[in-house]
UniProtKB/TrEMBL annotation:
The keyword Kinase applies. Its cofactor is Mg(2+). Its EC number is 2.7.9.1. Residues 60-115 form the Pyruvate phosphate dikinase AMP/ATP-binding domain. Coiled coil: none annotated. This is pyruvate, phosphate dikinase. It comes from the Eukaryota. It holds the Pfam family PEP-utilizers. Keywords: ATP-binding, Kinase, Magnesium, Metal-binding, Nucleotide-binding, Transferase. Residues 180-243 form the PEP-utilising enzyme mobile domain. Gene3D superfamilies: ATP-grasp fold, B domain (3.30.470.20), Phosphoenolpyruvate-binding domains (3.20.20.60), Phosphohistidine domain (3.50.30.10), Pyruvate Phosphate Dikinase, domain 2 (1.10.189.10). The lineage of its organism: Eukaryota, Viridiplantae, Streptophyta, Embryophyta, Tracheophyta. It is an enzyme of class 2 (transferase). GO terms for molecular function: ATP binding; kinase activity; metal ion binding; pyruvate, phosphate dikinase activity.
Amino acid sequence: MAFGNMGNTSGTGVLFTRNPSTGEKKLYGEFLVNAQGEDVVAGIRTPEDLDTMKNCMPEAYKELVENCEILESHYKDMMDIEFTVQENRLWMLQCRTGKRTGKAAVKIAVDMVNEGLVDKRSAIKMVEPQHLDQLFTLSLRIRPLTKTKLATGLPASPGAAVGQVVFCADDAETWHAQGKKAILVRTETSPEDVGGMHAAAGILTARGGMTSHAAVVARGWGKCCVSGCSDIRVNDAEKVVVIGNTLIREENGSPSMETLVNFRRLKVMANADTPEDALTARNNGAQGIGLCRTEHMFFASDDRIKSVRKMIMAVTLEQRKAALDLLLPYQRSDFEGIFRAMDGLPVTIRLLDPPLHEFLPEEVNPMLGFRGCRLGISYPELTEMQARAIFQAAVLVSNQGVKVFPEIMVPLVGTPQELGHQVSLIRIVAKTVFAEMGTTLSYKVGTMIEIPRAALVADEIAKEADFFSFGTNDLTQMTFGYSRDDVAKFLPIYLSNGILQNDPLRCLIKEDLKVGICGETVGSLLLLHSSQRPD
């Protein structure tokens, strides 16, 4: 038993070997002189910073720092440590892996790789799924409005503008294409920036006078521009601008996260249904879009939902085509924005797979009901409209210099005949659109394997498909006969009794196979290398 309440040469404390909020490599903790551990934990007394111990017990503090280094080196992780000092002698009471925020988890993992403590594979395991949820949740600091000005520049072109800071012309154009306002911030502008300057809501430059390039161009367009703002420092590489003590970033991203993503060995693609989602995925390291759910696009406005309802409720072919004609521009516009955001990367677009109750609140459409390819086969004009929107958008942005790699995915296929029907229809539409627009481009047509029968006859379906993606949600539900709607009622019992080892809707074990996988199981995907795998 060590006693920290033996006078001013004794004390107790709790610390983390790194900052659990930010991940900074610096001891982070609290210390109380002449106290026991429960005094810190129970909040009986207000503890002080660890610097207190450094000042009043320097030898014990030095030993504590050395011990922290030893423990981190041994456990290869950030540690949570409790200790007591009894009459200047340090006693280490216990240590355990320290809890941390998502931001800290990523930084600690990356830093420990750079320090040689862990390898990249171990670093990835240090970041849990909930850490990423935290990291990608935007946080706001609410500050009272003040009349304090941050900086002063020249009124190159009068007006006012509000928007998200961007640091290159291309980003300004991308944001504008998505209907979002951007402020283009540059050290100085050049003729190559004209497209972004036109797209931006306003322009801010660190250098330049009333007759600078930015000033002249902005005045000609009547666009707000502040030039020669010498109080700002623009860092294009880090995408930050510093104004006095204020630092403004282009994105709420994390340099450490970008480094961690580069540790991956798997190709990671995103679920993204809108241009905004696509841009966010791109900025966070996605290597393309693995699933774009076209039904989700129709919730962007009341007009879209009404058009979908007209299509669903149509009695005649003419009524249905009229509703689809209303939907075509919306789809084409969304695909244009997505293709621009994913310039040079593949985009897999799933054709309409709507549970009808999503659009008609009083409608019931069972999981095994009228959806997926069954819709496209029953109403070929629906597949034709979506394929036309995809190909028109692809050609339009391709003509503007964007590299487009569209992959069209037919959902809920159970037989090769179903896929063959839809593939033929899509290729006819592609040929028609390319003839109308005077150009062609490469594309793929594939399917999502989400029905057990499709998995069993995959060799036959493969003759019609350019690619497969395994939809593990429906595939698992149909294989086990479970429904995600009520599985929680009995699954805990199955797990506790050992009937199942893992939640089949969340855990997947597969041998090496080059396929796409989407669904909740992806978060805990475990790849096993077969000892009999050919070289």
